[in-house]
Amino acid sequence: MKSKQNKLDPIKIFEKWYLEAKKSELNNPNACCLATSDLMGYPSARMILVKKFDERGFIFYTNLNSKKAEDFSRNIKVALCFHWKSTGKQVRIEGPVIDLPDQEADDYFESRERESQIGSLVSKQSKLLTDGISGLDKEFMIEKRKLGNKKILRPSFWSGKIVVPEKIEFWKSRNYRLHERILFTAFNNEWKKEYLYP
């Protein structure tokens, strides 16, 4: 779904709200809740960091063996929720998740701090950690020594995903719980705008 460059462009509205939040949020204004569900309909939610957004959608990175990636393989429909307490605003996004092109994932992985690259190599995300956190730290140090100064390439089990928005709802706090809610729905490559009761 490509955004139209006009006042009905919710990506532009999101950008404005996000830049506002960057000035007032203490930590990670790009943090949001990602909700997935499995084939049985059981929901699962966790906080992630959206690293980029553009006309394609909202981009984040993950271990492809993680619980959320397992859910993607069974049900590509997901939801994101940004909440910025400092601005009294919230954005809810729904749509399918698709793969980010490999080259973009390679470029982003290369831009990460070396220690974060190593962390990606040693983390068996969502799997049982039998030796506790000290065991993870030990694995990290072993891998760091083994690699030395060698360049670290993006592992095949780590990549990027794009949440393609089909619905974007903007929520703004108002007095007496008369909050403003505006819903944008993708329809025939355009956005339909509607107001919702709080």
Short description:
This protein is α+β, with helices and mostly antiparallel strands and 198 residues long. Helices cover 29% and strands 35% of the residues.
Strand content bin: 35-45%
CATH structural class of the domain at 10-102 and 158-196: Mainly Beta
What is the tally of beta strands?
10
Q: How would you sum up the major sheet?
A: 10 strands, antiparallel
Note the total helix count. 5
Residues in helix, %:
25-40%
Radius of gyration from the alpha-carbon trace, in angstroms: 19 Å
Mean pLDDT: 95
The helix/strand order is: HEEEEHEEHHHEEEE
N-end to C-end Cα span: 27 Å
Return residue spans where pLDDT drops below 50 for at least 5 consecutive residues.
Answer: 1-6
What is the CATH architecture assignment of the domain at 10-102 and 158-196? Roll
Structural class: alpha+beta
- Large-scale geometry: elongated
CATH homologous superfamily (4th level) name of the domain at 10-102 and 158-196: Electron Transport, Fmn-binding Protein, Chain A
Might you state the CATH topology name of the domain at 10-102 and 158-196? Pnp Oxidase, Chain A
What does this structure look like?
It is built from five helices and ten strands, in the order αββββαββαααββββ. It has 198 residues and is of the alpha+beta class. It has a domain at 10-102 and 158-196: Pnp Oxidase, Chain A. Strands 1, 2, 3, 4, 5, 6, 7, 8, 9 and 10 form a ten-stranded antiparallel beta sheet that branches. β9 (180-187) and β10 form a beta hairpin. The chain is elongated. The two termini are 27 Å apart. The model is unreliable at 1-6 (pLDDT under 50).
